[in-house]
Amino acid sequence: MTGKITTAILRTKLYKPRVSKHHLHRQQLTARLDRWVPRPLTLVSAPAGYGKSTLLSDWLKISDLPSAWISLDENDNDFYTFLSYLLAAVQTLFPSAVENTKTLLSAPHFPPMATIAHSLINELDQIEQSFIVVLDDYHTINDKTVHGFISEILQHPPESLHLVLSSRLDPPFGLARFRARRQMGEIRIQDLRFSIKEISTFLEKEIGKPIDNTTIAALDKKIEGWVTGLRLATLSLRNRLDLNRVITDLPVDNRYLADYLRSEVLANLPDETQSYLFATAILNRFCASLCDAVCITKSGSLECQMGGINFLEWLKISELFVVPLDEHGKWFRYHHLFQQLLLRRLKKQLTKEKISLFYNQASQWCADTGLIDEAIHYALAGGHTLAAAKIVEQTRHIPLNEDRWDVLKNRLDLLPHEIIQQRPGLLMARAWVLNFQFALSAVPPLIDKITALDCEDIKEDIQLEIDLFKGMFLFWEGEGESSMKLLGHVLEQIPAADSILKNEVTVYFGPASQMAGQGEAIMKIYQNRLYAETLEGTYTIRLQISLVFILILAGDLIKASDKARQFKEMSKRLNNQFAQAWSHYLLGIIHYHLYHRKIAIHHFAKAIENRYLLDGNANIDSYAGLILSYQASHQPEKATHTMKQMMVFAR
């Protein structure tokens, strides 16, 4: 509601991979990338292991333009999550950019993809400096909405943005039209293959002496310019002196080359090193303490005695396909191809049950460290569904108190329906999500389900929340006095740190008290609280809205107008789009009832412009208010047109 990005962002996914000191700079390719910057799109497409990410990282390192990077994975196969990372990436370069689009992320009613795309296009177009955004591993995305979104951005590209897609597969939107318009550049497998000269230079740097042309040609025939194959071959050479014999032993078919070289490389490593490699292969990213947590198991099948710090030091020295994820050298990940090879080896060596222990250890460590989304991921990946459910249940107040109900929704969506139905805490979490989506009619059945479950010890922990929702229901049923008493009880019992309960009670307690004839006293309490709160807080915004509603219910429209105008000025000063939308809605209601039709039309129209930020029925009420204002102003055609727009929106 406050215009912040509201999904849990892993900052390490925004880190550009470092270039190895043994990297071979490819001037011809980076020069082509430079030439294509004025075009909206560059596609780098090739199978795994051909150096796509390394090439791009090396290019960005020498480029004069600011650049952002997103390492995509299967968890980004959701438009909301994808957009959150894209906006976060842009803001690493321009912190004050894309604020309006960020606000749409917090909207109670998530807008259509095209609405968000157009908002982002307009905001990116306001950035005067050219910049580059790389979406690495784009092949992991199969969400049609994400593909449609990228296609929409490229159909109407902002002048400042150059988008780079790095992928094993071509994206499933029409590239032909971009080629025809010369709006894209392409680097493909034939471009990425190492030439004879590059193979020679690379080997000379790695081995420390020149290699004859016959040997180079024989190696090229086997690896066909495959960068990872070449790298694996040089690792194998560390333990063998006869280069020609190594090349002779290489399989002819590239499908078997990786497995052969993997065996050659891994077979010469100490058992405890191999154990650490296999155990940590389950991790999407790792640090020393997480490695220790995963490797300390009771499986008895792996010798994990090396220690996380020593293991990471060894990885850095060996440069064994590990990618640093931050500037401090704390977090790393394996190259995806190497991780897949390790996982296959792990599954051959251990049973599913024993591998599950690694996932469980990783989940527990992440939960203890506050990495909740990763903790849930590892629990589910290891088949520990109940453990994942407990993590969501035990941490459900954290995203709510941070005004991030959407994060809680995403976590709930990962769990089986049957598990949620059996646990009061998860049912209450679902009730909160529905409340923030203003699907209020779906909440009472959940509250009834919670009270019917035979879990007294758990129900005591959420009784205040049950009472809150019951107080809200009483308000909507017109039972002002009963609602006021129940909400007043909740207000007295709320823990100081539980901001979500405090916010929701604030919204309903004031109007319920006004309904019960206690409005004057409540207004004084609310006004005193406003002086004690920071102006930009969500709680303050809710206090302001409730105070104006109390005045409207009391019939004091002049004072309500003054308060709403002050609220509007505050929201504009703070550039809070959510508060601005509500201020226009409130002023529309007030001026309609004051018979100021022209002013009411202005405010209702402004509220409709930000209709996705209005929760409850406020967006539909804004349409209805505008229709009535047009009718009262003898503008039936505009009233009819607005009615049609409202019907489209309501669908």
Q: What gross morphology would you assign?
A: globular
What is the correct CATH architecture of the domain at 11-192? 3-Layer(aba) Sandwich
What is the average per-residue confidence, as pLDDT, rounded to a whole number? 85
Please bin the fraction of helical residues: 55-70%
Contiguous runs where pLDDT drops below 50 for at least 5 residues: 1-6
What does the oligomeric state look like here?
Answer: single chain
Please tell me about this protein's structure:
The protein is mainly α. Among the domains are: 182 residues, Rossmann fold; 72 residues; 105 residues; 84 residues, Alpha Horseshoe (Serine Threonine Protein Phosphatase 5, Tetratricopeptide repeat). Helix content is 64%, strand content 5%. Strands 2-3-4-1-5 form a 5-stranded parallel sheet, sandwiched between helices. A two-stranded antiparallel ribbon has the order 6-7. Helix 24 packs antiparallel against helix 25. It is globular and about 95 Å long.
Short note summarizing the structure:
The protein has 651 residues and is mainly alpha-helical. 64% of the residues lie in helices and 5% in strands.
Topology:
Layout (H helix, E strand, L loop, with lengths): L26 H9 L5 E5 L6 H11 L4 E5 L7 H15 L5 H7 L7 H13 L5 E6 L7 H12 L5 E7 L8 H5 L3 E4 L1 H4 L3 H12 L5 H11 L3 H11 L5 H7 L4 H14 L3 H10 L7 H8 L12 H11 L3 E3 L7 E3 L1 H14 L2 H18 L2 H10 L3 H10 L2 H5 L3 H9 L3 H6 L1 H13 L6 H10 L3 H6 L1 H14 L3 H14 L5 H17 L3 H14 L5 H17 L2 H17 L3 H17 L3 H13 L8 H15 L3 H15 L1
Parallel strand pairs: 1-4, 1-5, 2-3, 3-4
Antiparallel strand pairs: 6-7
